[in-house]
Amino acid sequence: MKIEKLIELAEKIKDKELKEKVIEFLKNPKLSNEEIIYPSSNPEEIPSSLNSHHSKEGGHIEHTTSVTELAIKLAEHFEKFYGVKINYDYLIAGALLHDWMKIYHFTKSQGIWKHSGCLIDHAVLTACELYARGFPEEVIHIVEAHGGDLGQTAARPQTIEALIVFYADIMDAAIESFIAPKEQAKIFLISEEE
Question: Where do the DSSP E strands lie in 103-148?
Fold first, then answer.
């Protein structure tokens, strides 16, 4: 999958300013803080993780696309079933950007993906960058609250959009891990000697 698929999903954002910010961030995820220097990897190449879900070349874009499309479908269901009002602009922006700064977490050396040594969690790093770029608080919150189990994230989901992205992320990771070939993860595991 290519970044163009994510830009196509970003085009669904109705708020022109937010849409432009999301597309710019997808195309140019450079860190604003010049004191923090990590090599950036190509988002189309990196895995989404090293030894769990989407741990394959290109897994990052595949996971991001799936989470965004799943979040939209979940939102449509809950809107129809419960009559809840959902801000699709925030939902799509948050889903598209929830893992975006993983490009600073993974680096490839001698054909093996490794952790770069970045000390800041990808969700926190992304949330900080969104704050620096003037994104809406609601989108920053979706990103900040997306990872891990409830209670183990930087923040607990406090909006319907954040909760939907949180569960879309967990569901996609769990399903892909269940159906992915077991050999896939072995390609990216790092030996203790390295």
Answer: 106-109, 112-115
- Residue 40 has what DSSP assignment? P
User: Class of 3-186 per CATH?
Assistant: mainly alpha
- CA 101, chain centre distance (Å): 8
Tell whether the model's pLDDT for residue 90 goes beyond 90.
Answer: yes
Is residue 47 a contact partner of residue 54, using CB atoms and an 8 Å limit?
Answer: yes
The CA–CA distances, whole Å, from 52 to 73, 186, 189 equal 24, 10, 10
Comparing 59 with 189, which gets the higher pLDDT?
59
pLDDT > 90 in the chain, percent: 47
Pick the closest to residue 190 from 32, 77, 51 (CA basis): 51
CB 159 within 8 A of CB 140: no
Q: Work out the mean pLDDT of the chain and round it to a whole number.
A: 83
Helix/strand/coil for 143? helix
**Domain limits, the chain:** 3-186
DSSP annotation string for 165-189 = HHHHHHHHHHHHHHHS-HHHHHTT-
Q: Where are the alpha helices (DSSP H) in 83-116?
A: 88-97
Q: Is 107 helix (H, G, I), strand (E, B) or coil?
A: strand
